[in-house]
Amino acid sequence: MPDVQPASEVRTAVDAPVGRITLNRPKAINALTTVMVGAIAAALDAWEADDAVSVVVLDGAGERGFCAGGDIRMFRESALARDGAALEFWAREYALDARIAGYPKPVVAIMDGIVMGGGIGLAGHASHRVATERLRAAMPEVGIGFFPDVGGTHLLAAAPGRTGTHLALTGLPIGAADAVAIGLADAVVDHSRLDELMAALGSDTPDAAIATVAAASAEPPPGGIAADRAWIDACYAAGSVAEIVGRLEAREEDAAQAAAATIRTRSPTALAVTLRALRSDAARSSLQACLEQDLRIAEAFLQTPDFVEGIRAVVIDKDHDPHWDPPGLGDVTDVDRYFAPPA
């Protein structure tokens, strides 16, 4: 299979009828840059009218994961410099997510290893989402003073019951079984059978190829979401984050108590905005409406202290001791501005 861009952070190749796009920053768990987003979009544009390509595969280089998200350090630097680079990235990224969702040919995303943030944006909106038993998927943005963007609230709002709210407000990772259970993945294939899947995609329809290899794969380790639905649905139906935490803390289940403790470490502002975004008409109506809302919210977060502080605590200094402003769940009063329409 000839490699079109051998030195690129995105490798593209055609082995008819499969067009393959491989994210190629393995040391960074294939975290997305603006250049990478452009390269993926260019490949999709080129292959849309190419009769030699009937199916597109998205995967990631290296053993650690498909994609850990966006270039977080760049986001912080851009917020501090107010240079517009982060906003430009998000605008292009969200447009790519919408492009993948509406692509006229099947897009098969291989969700192997770590798939978080922007990785969910790429894979979660594909027509065929294949997880492996190694999947560790999450939207952990509230832990850095941000929110589940890339249409993440659209995906999580559609999850059964209040499971999407639980995952959005805690940022906790899930495995393959839970990803299927909440509608984030469609099938599970053994990591050791991915080459077999690629070969099958070259000779059969995506549906048939995936079904065949999935049937030959082992059952993934069981998840916990289904077993926890009773307390998840009861607690996360509350009207505010503070009330949700109160309900969780009143439960006897250890998992509910742990969820409450986790939420209390997250940015109160990010939590309030995330809950409203999940319950907004935009998140429930269409991906496009959600992505438009995401861009408005993301732009507002660039002006907040929590976004810069969260990245410092988690990524830069790694002390995991963010000082949120405001600090308490009941102290957040200015949520409307994150949802204000463009002036």
UniProtKB/TrEMBL annotation:
Alphabetized CDD domains for the sequence: crotonase-like
GO biological process assignments: L-valine catabolic process
Key words, A-Z: Hydrolase, Isomerase
Pfam families linked: ECH_2
Catalytic activity: 3-hydroxy-2-methylpropanoyl-CoA + H2O = 3-hydroxy-2-methylpropanoate + CoA + H(+)
Top-level EC class: hydrolase
EC numbers: 3.1.2.4
Gene Ontology CC entries for this record: cytosol
Signal sequence annotation: none
InterPro entries: ClpP/crotonase-like_dom_sf, ECH_dom, HIBYL-CoA-H
Domain Enoyl-CoA hydratase/isomerase residue range list: 18-334
Top-level taxon in the UniProt lineage: Bacteria
Gene Ontology MF annotations: 3-hydroxyisobutyryl-CoA hydrolase activity; isomerase activity
NCBIfam families xrefs: PRK05617.1
Protein name per the record: 3-hydroxyisobutyryl-CoA hydrolase
Protein source organism: Baekduia soli
Classification lineage: Bacteria, Bacillati, Actinomycetota, Thermoleophilia, Solirubrobacterales
